[in-house]
Design a protein that fits this description.
Elements (H helix, E strand, L loop, with lengths): L1 H17 L3 H9 L6 H13 L3 H13 L6 H14 L2 H13 L6 H13 L3 H10 L5 H13 L3 H13 L6 H14 L2 H13 L7 H13 L3 H9 L8 H12 L3 H13 L5 H13 L3 H14 L7 E6 L2 E6 L8 H17 L15 H9 L2 H12 L6 E5 L5 H14 L3 E4 L4 E5 L2 E2 L6
Parallel strand pairs: 3-4
Antiparallel strand pairs: 1-2, 1-3, 4-5, 5-6
Helix pairs in contact: 1-2, 1-3, 2-3, 3-4, 3-5, 4-5, 5-6, 5-7, 7-8, 7-9, 8-9, 9-10, 9-11, 10-11, 11-12, 11-13, 12-13, 13-14, 13-15, 14-15, 15-16, 15-17, 16-17, 17-18, 19-21
The chain binds one DNA strand of 10 nucleotides through helix 1, helix 3, helix 5, helix 7 and helix 9.
GO biological process, one term: RNA modification
Pfam families: DYW_deaminase, E_motif, Eplus_motif, PPR, PPR_1, PPR_2
GO molecular function: RNA binding; zinc ion binding
DNA sequence: TTAGGGTTAG
Protein backbone atom coordinates (compact mmCIF):
# COMPACT_ATOMS: atom_id res chain seq x y z
CA UNK A 1 0.00 0.00 0.00
CA UNK A 2 1.63 3.22 -1.15
CA UNK A 3 0.28 5.29 1.73
CA UNK A 4 1.82 3.06 4.39
CA UNK A 5 5.06 3.27 2.50
CA UNK A 6 4.96 7.07 2.55
CA UNK A 7 4.30 7.24 6.29
CA UNK A 8 6.86 4.61 7.26
CA UNK A 9 9.54 6.24 5.09
CA UNK A 10 8.80 9.58 6.71
CA UNK A 11 9.01 7.97 10.14
CA UNK A 12 12.45 6.63 9.29
CA UNK A 13 13.60 10.01 8.00
CA UNK A 14 12.37 11.55 11.25
CA UNK A 15 14.47 9.06 13.20
CA UNK A 16 17.64 9.83 11.28
CA UNK A 17 17.02 13.57 11.39
CA UNK A 18 16.47 13.46 15.17
CA UNK A 19 19.87 11.88 15.79
CA UNK A 20 21.47 14.34 13.37
CA UNK A 21 22.28 11.86 10.61
CA UNK A 22 20.98 14.14 7.90
CA UNK A 23 22.83 12.54 5.01
CA UNK A 24 21.19 9.21 5.70
CA UNK A 25 17.82 10.98 6.08
CA UNK A 26 18.38 12.75 2.78
CA UNK A 27 19.15 9.52 0.96
CA UNK A 28 15.84 8.09 2.08
CA UNK A 29 14.08 11.34 1.21
CA UNK A 30 15.58 11.41 -2.28
CA UNK A 31 14.58 7.81 -2.82
CA UNK A 32 10.89 8.37 -2.08
CA UNK A 33 8.52 7.90 -4.98
CA UNK A 34 5.93 10.22 -3.49
CA UNK A 35 6.18 12.78 -0.72
CA UNK A 36 3.64 14.67 1.28
CA UNK A 37 3.98 17.92 3.22
CA UNK A 38 5.13 16.06 6.34
CA UNK A 39 8.03 14.34 4.60
CA UNK A 40 9.22 17.70 3.26
CA UNK A 41 8.82 19.29 6.69
CA UNK A 42 10.79 16.63 8.49
CA UNK A 43 13.72 17.04 6.13
CA UNK A 44 13.61 20.86 6.07
CA UNK A 45 13.34 21.04 9.84
CA UNK A 46 16.08 18.43 10.26
CA UNK A 47 18.53 20.72 8.46
CA UNK A 48 17.34 23.76 10.39
CA UNK A 49 17.71 22.07 13.78
CA UNK A 50 21.17 20.67 13.12
CA UNK A 51 23.18 23.66 12.04
CA UNK A 52 22.57 23.40 8.30
CA UNK A 53 20.13 26.27 7.78
CA UNK A 54 21.29 27.05 4.25
CA UNK A 55 20.37 23.56 3.08
CA UNK A 56 17.05 23.94 4.83
CA UNK A 57 16.29 27.03 2.75
CA UNK A 58 17.46 25.43 -0.48
CA UNK A 59 15.18 22.46 0.12
CA UNK A 60 12.28 24.78 0.92
CA UNK A 61 12.70 26.45 -2.47
CA UNK A 62 12.67 23.02 -4.09
CA UNK A 63 9.47 22.24 -2.23
CA UNK A 64 7.79 25.31 -3.69
CA UNK A 65 9.09 24.42 -7.15
CA UNK A 66 7.59 20.94 -6.76
CA UNK A 67 4.27 22.71 -6.10
CA UNK A 68 3.94 21.26 -2.62
CA UNK A 69 1.98 23.65 -0.43
CA UNK A 70 3.78 24.49 2.83
CA UNK A 71 1.90 24.51 6.12
CA UNK A 72 2.54 26.09 9.52
CA UNK A 73 5.22 23.57 10.49
CA UNK A 74 7.13 24.32 7.28
CA UNK A 75 7.06 28.01 8.05
CA UNK A 76 8.29 27.55 11.60
CA UNK A 77 11.25 25.54 10.32
CA UNK A 78 12.25 27.95 7.54
CA UNK A 79 11.88 31.02 9.74
CA UNK A 80 14.31 29.45 12.19
CA UNK A 81 16.69 28.75 9.28
CA UNK A 82 16.43 32.38 8.09
CA UNK A 83 17.29 33.60 11.58
CA UNK A 84 20.32 31.36 11.79
CA UNK A 85 21.86 32.50 8.51
CA UNK A 86 20.65 36.09 8.84
CA UNK A 87 18.62 35.92 5.64
CA UNK A 88 16.40 38.95 6.18
CA UNK A 89 15.17 39.19 2.60
CA UNK A 90 14.06 35.55 2.57
CA UNK A 91 12.49 36.00 6.00
CA UNK A 92 10.51 39.02 4.81
CA UNK A 93 9.35 37.07 1.80
CA UNK A 94 8.03 34.34 4.08
CA UNK A 95 6.27 36.94 6.22
CA UNK A 96 4.56 38.27 3.07
CA UNK A 97 3.69 34.76 1.96
CA UNK A 98 1.99 34.18 5.32
CA UNK A 99 -0.14 37.25 4.67
CA UNK A 100 -1.37 35.79 1.38
CA UNK A 101 -1.89 32.28 2.68
CA UNK A 102 -4.69 31.15 4.93
CA UNK A 103 -2.34 30.86 7.91
CA UNK A 104 -3.00 33.44 10.57
CA UNK A 105 -0.13 34.76 12.64
CA UNK A 106 -0.78 32.98 15.92
CA UNK A 107 1.55 32.82 18.92
CA UNK A 108 3.69 30.08 17.34
CA UNK A 109 4.25 31.79 14.00
CA UNK A 110 4.53 35.16 15.72
CA UNK A 111 7.31 33.86 17.96
CA UNK A 112 9.16 32.42 14.98
CA UNK A 113 8.83 35.79 13.16
CA UNK A 114 10.06 37.77 16.17
CA UNK A 115 13.01 35.43 16.49
CA UNK A 116 13.79 35.65 12.76
CA UNK A 117 13.58 39.45 12.63
CA UNK A 118 15.68 40.04 15.70
CA UNK A 119 18.36 37.57 14.58
CA UNK A 120 18.38 39.21 11.14
CA UNK A 121 19.04 42.58 12.75
CA UNK A 122 15.60 44.13 12.34
CA UNK A 123 14.40 44.80 15.86
CA UNK A 124 11.71 47.24 14.67
CA UNK A 125 10.04 44.52 12.60
CA UNK A 126 10.31 42.11 15.52
CA UNK A 127 8.55 44.60 17.78
CA UNK A 128 5.84 45.20 15.19
CA UNK A 129 5.08 41.49 15.02
CA UNK A 130 5.13 41.32 18.83
CA UNK A 131 2.59 44.14 19.13
CA UNK A 132 0.31 42.47 16.59
CA UNK A 133 0.01 39.13 18.42
CA UNK A 134 -3.28 38.94 20.27
CA UNK A 135 -2.80 35.83 22.38
CA UNK A 136 0.68 36.51 23.75
CA UNK A 137 2.09 33.86 26.05
CA UNK A 138 5.39 33.61 27.93
CA UNK A 139 7.20 32.19 24.91
CA UNK A 140 6.26 35.21 22.78
CA UNK A 141 7.63 37.48 25.52
CA UNK A 142 10.77 35.37 25.79
CA UNK A 143 11.51 35.72 22.08
CA UNK A 144 11.17 39.50 22.28
CA UNK A 145 13.21 39.76 25.49
CA UNK A 146 16.02 37.68 23.99
CA UNK A 147 15.81 39.86 20.88
CA UNK A 148 16.33 43.01 22.96
CA UNK A 149 19.13 41.30 24.86
CA UNK A 150 21.20 40.38 21.80
CA UNK A 151 20.83 43.90 20.47
CA UNK A 152 22.01 45.41 23.74
CA UNK A 153 18.66 47.04 24.57
CA UNK A 154 18.91 46.11 28.21
CA UNK A 155 16.31 48.48 29.58
CA UNK A 156 13.70 47.41 27.03
CA UNK A 157 14.34 43.77 27.95
CA UNK A 158 13.86 44.55 31.64
CA UNK A 159 10.72 46.58 30.92
CA UNK A 160 9.14 43.66 29.06
CA UNK A 161 10.07 41.38 31.93
CA UNK A 162 8.14 43.62 34.31
CA UNK A 163 5.25 43.88 31.86
CA UNK A 164 4.98 40.08 31.84
CA UNK A 165 3.97 39.91 35.48
CA UNK A 166 1.62 42.88 35.05
CA UNK A 167 -0.32 40.96 32.39
CA UNK A 168 -0.31 37.83 34.53
CA UNK A 169 2.29 35.76 32.68
CA UNK A 170 4.88 33.76 34.59
CA UNK A 171 8.54 34.03 33.63
CA UNK A 172 10.20 30.76 32.62
CA UNK A 173 13.81 29.64 32.92
CA UNK A 174 14.42 31.06 29.44
CA UNK A 175 13.03 34.46 30.44
CA UNK A 176 15.82 34.61 33.02
CA UNK A 177 18.47 33.56 30.51
CA UNK A 178 17.27 36.51 28.42
CA UNK A 179 17.36 39.16 31.12
CA UNK A 180 20.55 37.90 32.74
CA UNK A 181 22.36 38.01 29.41
CA UNK A 182 20.91 41.51 28.87
CA UNK A 183 22.46 42.54 32.21
CA UNK A 184 25.77 40.97 31.15
CA UNK A 185 25.91 43.06 27.97
CA UNK A 186 25.42 46.22 30.02
CA UNK A 187 27.58 45.29 33.00
CA UNK A 188 24.65 45.52 35.45
CA UNK A 189 26.12 43.46 38.29
CA UNK A 190 23.79 44.29 41.19
CA UNK A 191 20.68 44.05 39.01
CA UNK A 192 21.91 40.66 37.79
CA UNK A 193 22.34 39.34 41.32
CA UNK A 194 18.90 40.64 42.29
CA UNK A 195 17.27 38.87 39.34
CA UNK A 196 19.20 35.66 39.96
CA UNK A 197 17.96 35.62 43.57
CA UNK A 198 14.44 36.55 42.53
CA UNK A 199 14.39 33.58 40.17
CA UNK A 200 15.47 31.16 42.92
CA UNK A 201 13.58 32.53 45.89
CA UNK A 202 10.41 34.09 44.50
CA UNK A 203 9.77 32.26 41.24
CA UNK A 204 10.89 28.86 42.46
CA UNK A 205 13.03 28.24 39.39
CA UNK A 206 16.12 26.18 40.16
CA UNK A 207 19.08 27.79 38.42
CA UNK A 208 20.55 25.60 35.71
CA UNK A 209 24.08 25.62 34.38
CA UNK A 210 22.89 28.15 31.77
CA UNK A 211 21.91 30.64 34.47
CA UNK A 212 25.20 30.19 36.24
CA UNK A 213 26.82 30.72 32.86
CA UNK A 214 25.10 34.09 32.51
CA UNK A 215 26.16 35.11 36.02
CA UNK A 216 29.78 34.03 35.58
CA UNK A 217 29.87 35.89 32.29
CA UNK A 218 28.32 39.00 33.86
CA UNK A 219 30.70 39.02 36.83
CA UNK A 220 33.72 38.02 34.78
CA UNK A 221 33.31 40.71 32.15
CA UNK A 222 32.73 43.31 34.82
CA UNK A 223 36.11 42.35 36.29
CA UNK A 224 34.70 40.68 39.40
CA UNK A 225 36.80 37.60 38.81
CA UNK A 226 37.07 36.42 42.43
CA UNK A 227 33.30 36.68 42.87
CA UNK A 228 32.81 34.64 39.72
CA UNK A 229 35.41 32.11 40.89
CA UNK A 230 33.56 31.60 44.18
CA UNK A 231 30.27 31.13 42.34
CA UNK A 232 31.69 28.41 40.09
CA UNK A 233 33.43 26.64 42.99
CA UNK A 234 30.16 26.59 44.91
CA UNK A 235 28.14 24.77 42.26
CA UNK A 236 28.27 21.13 41.38
CA UNK A 237 26.08 21.17 38.30
CA UNK A 238 28.75 22.08 35.77
CA UNK A 239 28.88 18.75 33.98
CA UNK A 240 31.03 19.73 31.02
CA UNK A 241 33.05 22.54 32.66
CA UNK A 242 31.60 25.33 30.52
CA UNK A 243 31.56 27.63 33.52
CA UNK A 244 35.29 27.22 33.99
CA UNK A 245 35.72 28.07 30.32
CA UNK A 246 33.70 31.25 30.75
CA UNK A 247 35.79 32.20 33.75
CA UNK A 248 39.06 31.55 31.92
CA UNK A 249 37.76 33.72 29.07
CA UNK A 250 37.23 36.52 31.59
CA UNK A 251 40.79 36.03 32.92
CA UNK A 252 42.04 36.60 29.39
CA UNK A 253 39.92 39.71 29.01
CA UNK A 254 41.36 41.18 32.19
CA UNK A 255 44.83 39.70 31.61
CA UNK A 256 44.76 37.90 34.95
CA UNK A 257 47.43 35.23 34.50
CA UNK A 258 47.62 34.27 38.19
CA UNK A 259 43.98 33.34 38.55
CA UNK A 260 44.04 31.64 35.15
CA UNK A 261 46.94 29.40 36.17
CA UNK A 262 45.37 28.71 39.54
CA UNK A 263 42.14 27.56 37.88
CA UNK A 264 43.91 25.34 35.37
CA UNK A 265 45.95 23.71 38.15
CA UNK A 266 42.80 23.16 40.15
CA UNK A 267 41.05 21.58 37.17
CA UNK A 268 44.09 19.48 36.33
CA UNK A 269 44.13 18.15 39.92
CA UNK A 270 40.52 17.04 39.56
CA UNK A 271 41.12 15.51 36.16
CA UNK A 272 38.77 18.08 34.60
CA UNK A 273 41.26 19.91 32.40
CA UNK A 274 40.61 19.21 28.73
CA UNK A 275 42.05 20.49 25.49
CA UNK A 276 39.77 23.55 25.62
CA UNK A 277 41.22 24.47 29.01
CA UNK A 278 44.70 24.71 27.49
CA UNK A 279 43.47 26.77 24.56
CA UNK A 280 42.08 29.28 27.01
CA UNK A 281 45.24 29.36 29.12
CA UNK A 282 47.27 29.79 25.95
CA UNK A 283 45.12 32.78 25.03
CA UNK A 284 45.62 34.28 28.48
CA UNK A 285 49.40 33.99 28.02
CA UNK A 286 49.15 35.48 24.54
CA UNK A 287 47.16 38.45 25.82
CA UNK A 288 50.09 39.39 28.05
CA UNK A 289 52.77 38.57 25.48
CA UNK A 290 54.06 35.53 27.34
CA UNK A 291 55.09 33.54 24.27
CA UNK A 292 56.91 30.85 26.27
CA UNK A 293 53.65 30.07 27.97
CA UNK A 294 51.88 29.99 24.61
CA UNK A 295 54.46 27.57 23.20
CA UNK A 296 54.10 25.25 26.21
CA UNK A 297 50.31 25.20 25.84
CA UNK A 298 50.53 24.65 22.09
CA UNK A 299 52.59 21.53 22.76
CA UNK A 300 49.96 20.23 25.20
CA UNK A 301 47.21 21.13 22.73
CA UNK A 302 48.93 19.27 19.91
CA UNK A 303 48.98 16.11 22.01
CA UNK A 304 45.33 16.30 22.90
CA UNK A 305 44.23 17.26 19.38
CA UNK A 306 42.22 20.45 19.82
CA UNK A 307 39.64 21.29 17.24
CA UNK A 308 38.64 24.85 16.63
CA UNK A 309 35.52 25.80 14.76
CA UNK A 310 36.57 27.57 11.57
CA UNK A 311 35.62 31.24 11.39
CA UNK A 312 33.04 32.20 8.81
CA UNK A 313 31.49 35.55 7.93
CA UNK A 314 28.51 36.04 5.70
CA UNK A 315 26.47 38.77 4.08
CA UNK A 316 23.16 38.65 2.24
CA UNK A 317 23.07 40.50 -1.07
CA UNK A 318 20.14 40.22 -3.49
CA UNK A 319 18.54 37.35 -1.65
CA UNK A 320 21.73 35.30 -1.67
CA UNK A 321 23.93 34.61 1.32
CA UNK A 322 27.65 34.92 0.52
CA UNK A 323 30.04 33.16 2.89
CA UNK A 324 33.67 33.96 3.49
CA UNK A 325 36.15 31.60 5.10
CA UNK A 326 39.62 32.50 6.37
CA UNK A 327 42.01 33.51 3.58
CA UNK A 328 39.23 32.90 1.09
CA UNK A 329 40.05 33.60 -2.56
CA UNK A 330 37.25 31.52 -3.98
CA UNK A 331 34.63 34.20 -4.35
CA UNK A 332 33.95 35.05 -8.02
CA UNK A 333 34.49 38.71 -7.19
CA UNK A 334 37.68 38.00 -5.26
CA UNK A 335 39.72 40.47 -7.29
CA UNK A 336 37.37 43.39 -6.68
CA UNK A 337 37.07 42.46 -3.02
CA UNK A 338 40.82 42.58 -2.50
CA UNK A 339 40.99 45.88 -4.40
CA UNK A 340 38.38 47.27 -2.02
CA UNK A 341 40.32 45.89 0.92
CA UNK A 342 43.36 47.85 -0.23
CA UNK A 343 41.23 50.96 -0.57
CA UNK A 344 39.86 50.43 2.94
CA UNK A 345 43.36 50.17 4.36
CA UNK A 346 44.28 53.44 2.65
CA UNK A 347 41.26 55.17 4.19
CA UNK A 348 42.10 53.75 7.60
CA UNK A 349 45.73 54.88 7.40
CA UNK A 350 44.61 58.34 6.32
CA UNK A 351 42.47 58.48 9.44
CA UNK A 352 45.47 57.65 11.57
CA UNK A 353 44.36 54.12 12.31
CA UNK A 354 46.93 51.71 13.71
CA UNK A 355 45.90 48.08 13.80
CA UNK A 356 45.41 46.46 17.16
CA UNK A 357 48.04 43.81 16.85
CA UNK A 358 47.36 42.35 20.29
CA UNK A 359 44.28 40.78 18.79
CA UNK A 360 46.65 38.29 17.13
CA UNK A 361 47.30 35.36 19.41
CA UNK A 362 50.48 34.11 17.75
CA UNK A 363 54.08 35.09 18.28
CA UNK A 364 54.86 36.64 14.92
CA UNK A 365 56.35 39.98 13.99
CA UNK A 366 54.20 43.10 14.05
CA UNK A 367 54.30 43.56 10.28
CA UNK A 368 53.12 40.01 9.82
CA UNK A 369 50.43 40.50 12.44
CA UNK A 370 49.16 43.51 10.56
CA UNK A 371 48.99 41.48 7.40
CA UNK A 372 47.14 38.63 9.09
CA UNK A 373 44.62 41.10 10.47
CA UNK A 374 44.03 42.69 7.09
CA UNK A 375 42.43 39.57 5.68
CA UNK A 376 40.16 38.74 8.59
CA UNK A 377 36.95 37.46 7.09
CA UNK A 378 34.81 40.18 8.68
CA UNK A 379 36.78 42.62 6.56
CA UNK A 380 36.35 40.51 3.41
CA UNK A 381 32.61 40.47 3.99
CA UNK A 382 32.62 44.21 4.65
CA UNK A 383 34.61 44.88 1.47
CA UNK A 384 32.16 42.78 -0.51
CA UNK A 385 29.29 44.66 1.09
CA UNK A 386 30.81 47.98 0.12
CA UNK A 387 31.23 47.06 -3.54
CA UNK A 388 27.89 45.33 -3.98
CA UNK A 389 25.38 47.57 -2.23
CA UNK A 390 24.17 51.09 -2.93
CA UNK A 391 25.87 54.03 -1.20
CA UNK A 392 24.25 55.14 2.09
CA UNK A 393 22.45 51.81 2.57
CA UNK A 394 22.94 49.73 5.69
CA UNK A 395 25.41 46.86 5.50
CA UNK A 396 24.72 43.74 7.55
CA UNK A 397 27.44 41.24 8.34
CA UNK A 398 27.27 37.98 10.26
CA UNK A 399 30.06 36.11 11.95
CA UNK A 400 29.87 32.66 13.55
CA UNK A 401 32.52 33.48 16.20
CA UNK A 402 33.13 36.57 18.28
CA UNK A 403 34.35 39.60 16.41
CA UNK A 404 37.98 40.42 17.13
CA UNK A 405 38.79 43.83 18.62
CA UNK A 406 40.69 44.95 15.53
CA UNK A 407 37.83 44.15 13.14
CA UNK A 408 35.47 45.86 15.55
CA UNK A 409 37.55 49.02 15.50
CA UNK A 410 37.86 48.90 11.69
CA UNK A 411 34.15 48.46 11.18
CA UNK A 412 33.40 51.40 13.46
CA UNK A 413 35.82 53.63 11.59
CA UNK A 414 34.60 52.53 8.15
CA UNK A 415 31.06 53.44 9.24
CA UNK A 416 32.32 56.94 9.87
CA UNK A 417 34.40 57.22 6.69
CA UNK A 418 31.70 55.93 4.33
CA UNK A 419 28.70 57.37 6.17
CA UNK A 420 27.17 53.90 6.21
CA UNK A 421 25.38 52.18 9.04
CA UNK A 422 27.02 48.79 9.57
CA UNK A 423 25.20 46.15 11.57
CA UNK A 424 27.13 43.09 12.63
CA UNK A 425 25.99 39.97 14.41
CA UNK A 426 28.68 37.92 16.07
CA UNK A 427 28.50 34.86 18.31
CA UNK A 428 27.25 36.90 21.22
CA UNK A 429 25.27 39.89 20.11
CA UNK A 430 24.58 42.62 17.59
CA UNK A 431 26.80 45.62 16.99
CA UNK A 432 25.19 48.65 15.38
CA UNK A 433 27.96 50.92 14.10
CA UNK A 434 27.04 54.47 13.15
CA UNK A 435 29.41 57.37 12.57
CA UNK A 436 32.34 55.69 14.26
CA UNK A 437 30.47 54.51 17.35
CA UNK A 438 29.10 51.09 18.27
CA UNK A 439 25.95 50.30 20.23
CA UNK A 440 27.92 47.87 22.40
CA UNK A 441 29.90 50.80 23.78
CA UNK A 442 32.99 48.64 23.21
CA UNK A 443 31.84 46.37 26.05
CA UNK A 444 31.28 42.88 24.72
C1' DT B 1 5.74 11.02 10.59
C1' DT B 2 6.66 17.50 11.39
C1' DA B 3 5.49 22.13 14.90
C1' DG B 4 7.42 28.76 18.33
C1' DG B 5 11.71 31.08 22.74
C1' DG B 6 18.19 29.39 24.94
C1' DT B 7 23.31 31.34 27.95
C1' DT B 8 28.56 30.49 28.17
C1' DA B 9 33.59 28.81 25.62
C1' DG B 10 37.44 28.05 21.66
Amino acid sequence: MPETNLVSFTAMITGYAKIGDLDEARMLFDGMKERDVVSWNVMIDGYAQHGRPNESLILFRQMLKARMKPNEATMLAVLSACGQVGALESGKWIHLYLGYSSMSINAHLGTALIDMYSKCGSLEDARMVFDGIKDKDSVVYNAMIVGYAIHGFTQEALNLFMEMSQVGLHPTDITFIGILSACAHAGLVSEGWALFNLMKDDCGIQPKVEHYGCMVNLLGRAGKLEEAYDLVKGTSIDTDSVLWGTLLGACRLHKNVDLGEQIVEFLHGLGLANSGTYVLLSNIYASTGNWDGVARMRAVMKQSGVQKEPGCSSIEVNNKVHEFLAGDMKHPKSKEIYEMLKQMNKWLKAHGYTSQTDAVLHNIGDAEKERSLEVHIEKLALAFGLISTKPRTTIKIFKNLRVCPDCHAVIKLISKITGRKIVMRDRNRFHHCVDGLCSCGDYW
